[in-house]
Write a structure and sequence with these properties.
Blueprint: E1 2-7, H1 20-27, E2 32-37, E3 50-51, E4 61-62, H2 64-74, E5 81-92, H3 95-101, E6 106-111, H4 119-124, E7 128-131, H5 141-152, H6 164-167, E8 185-186, E9 189-190, H7 200-218, H8 230-242, E10 249-254, E11 258-259, E12 265-266, H9 272-285, E13 289-293, H10 297-311, H11 315-318, H12 320-326, E14 329-332, H13 335-346, E15 351-354, H14 366-375, E16 380-385, H15 392-397, E17 400-401, H16 416-428
Length: 430
Amino acid sequence: MRYDILTIFPKFFESPFSFGILKKAQEKGLIQINVHDIRDFAPDKHNTVDDSPYGGGSGMVFKPGPLGDAIEFAKADGARSLVILTTPQGERFSDKIARELTEYEQLIIICGRYEGVDERIREIYVDREISIGDYVLSGGEYAASVIIDAVSRLIPGVLGNEASPYDDSFRGGLLEYPQYTRPETYKRKAVPEILLSGNHKEIEKWRRGEGVKRTFFRRPDLLDRASLTVEELKLIRRLRRENPPSFRVYVALVHYPVYNKDLRIVTTAFTNLDVHDISRACRTYGVRVFFLVHPVQEQRVLVERVLRHWTEGPGVLYNPTRNEALALVRIKSSLSEALEEIEKVEDSKPKVVVTDARPGENLTGYSELKERIITGEEPYLILFGTGWGIAKEVMERADYALKPIEGNTDYNHLSVRSAAAVVLDRLLSN
């Protein structure tokens, strides 16, 4: 593999590649690293490689001339080459991408700086844009070092033990299992007996299981892409039962005040499907209580009759799982009553989250709110409106308003029970 790095700070790379695995790989001829100073391709005596952006704005932009000439110079004749631009706007670097990059004979890596590069460089030369994370660095030199290290480890012969890259974290979508070495006991902590047994089949099984556990607790998002056996899926279910979520989330289905299709404030009637389906979604994602908010006594009595059938009457034996979900339901005449009950249980007022299919301003994204819910200690009440949405007066008093659910078309008319399932999955799923 040949790497050609385009940078305005060539001395940066004197250290990262001068020791360890990458130094040995160069000495063996397994990889070749060439560093090119973009300033050498500037035509003026001052070696100018940047200029102010057209249209105004802060910062400087890489000029297309010197950078384009540097790329042309670096390209090896007849080689399968790929031009990479390191930029915060690029796709997130991963083990999968590192493997894809090993398919090329040459990687030309442009180390981004300033406010970026002239857009024409992207259009004419760049094949792939890569970011190593959602943060800002002084320059792409750091990213180039990370990319070269990760890709080189996958090249045959670079690592002393050929099995090493396949045992590392992220192989098979899981984090690596715990590692131990001598002594057998350290500060009263002993090495797991299975590792001393000599039974390699059982050791491999133990390691795989520990990798699943570590991924579950540290990076549950990786489990979705991991290839798992039936036994491993059962293990994950057991871990979920033994480690219930610590977040404190409540849900309320609001029947008043809501809009009709003419945007007039109305009271809607409760429906069996909404109660049953949303309660099941709440039970699935770990919601503590599902409030049905309705101001009309007759409607509340009707709901109570339905609930008794499933939680106390014949429905208990007929469908125990439905009983389990509907046991979460509490009936209230107003949102104020629901908020008061939550405050009594939690000793603090919940943060109120509203949902609406209509676009608006100052809306919160799902990833941002999910992080607040999962990592914070405050209770949350998520409101779902029936009819044509929750009234403006309620929306304005909320702490957070979620962005509308957007699909791949301009159609935006989900039922409230479908919208609730989508929202809960985005906010509370692993």
